[in-house]
Amino acid sequence: xxxxVVKKILWFALVVTxxxxxxxxxxSEENKTNPVLLEVHKIWDQGKHNAFTDLIRFQDKWFCAFxxxxxxxxxxxxxxxxxxxxDGKIWGNTGLIAEAGVDLRDPKLSITPNERLMxxxxxxxxxxxxxxxxxxxxxxxxxxxxxxxxxxxxxxxDWLWRVTWNKDIAYGVSYRTNPELGSPLVLFKxxxxxxxxxxxxxxxADRANETTLRFLADGTMLALVxxxxxxxxxxxxxxxxxxxxxxxxxxxxxxxxxNFVILPDGAMWAAGRHYPGGAKTVLAELYLDRYEPxxxxxxxxxxxxxxxxxxxxxxxxxxYSSHEGKTSIYxxxxxxxx
Length: 338
Fold this sequence. Notes:
Layout (H helix, E strand, L loop, with lengths): L2 H31 L2 E9 L4 E10 L2 E9 L9 E7 L5 E7 L5 E9 L5 E11 L2 E5 L2 E5 L9 E2 L7 E7 L2 E7 L9 E6 L5 E6 L6 E8 L5 E7 L7 E5 L7 E4 L5 E7 L5 E7 L5 E7 L4 E6 L7 E8 L2 E8 L6 E8 L3
Antiparallel strand pairs: 1-25, 2-3, 3-4, 4-5, 6-7, 7-8, 7-9, 9-10, 11-12, 12-13, 13-14, 15-16, 16-17, 17-18, 19-20, 20-21, 21-22, 23-24, 24-25
């Protein structure tokens, strides 16, 4: 083999090596700023319509709660399905919770100060597709298998959408359909998850409703609020104790079924339904003044209502979607940029 041929082979090898190195560097640089979907799989599809999830880690197991019915609204009354897993891959059914004549909706999970698993859910009564009345329900369990009967809390017309415990107190926001109750969006607190005390009205216009609350290490309360009229952008709120004075900013995007978590390093990640180009479930980086979609999950059609848990250096996310035809429950594991 002459020297010219050898030189050409060496040159080609150097070029290929350089290209491979550039590609690895490019991917590495991208992963520094964007989340990466490590895996996603369907974990439940046995109901006719499986939707409105939440996810929690309790007693070294995963619990996922969601609503089962025959469609999104109306028809068969919704029931709460709870499934459990030790590894997030193999799931078992722990039971189906029902209340006669009541559509149980949007079950949200939390852990009480006395180490019980708690569900807060909407309790709606329909005539056909027409909403007649509603009142929140709460349920409790020592091990996530046997549950107390659904107990009404607050007033008819309230919907306490989620509670978040902080320093042994549960905080939650109720949105209201009954004008006689006063403000349409109200912050409540409770020491037992059953009896609630009003903290303040929340001055968020344009049909504000579904709200998730979280707490910074310094005690600041943050809120991510869905809106259904006006420009429909979600609102991001912040407040210091006693949480009666709030600062509000538009998020820049419409968000359905909003949820967010605060990671140990202080980064905030949110998820919900994203609308441009058709409904999708997305993961977004959250700041005090904006919501930036970063990752679109395999999803479409009837979709959203994510549960979020930071565990073992990864973000675990439940959600539902109808992109494969039937509304089903999915679990994703996501790498978050450092």
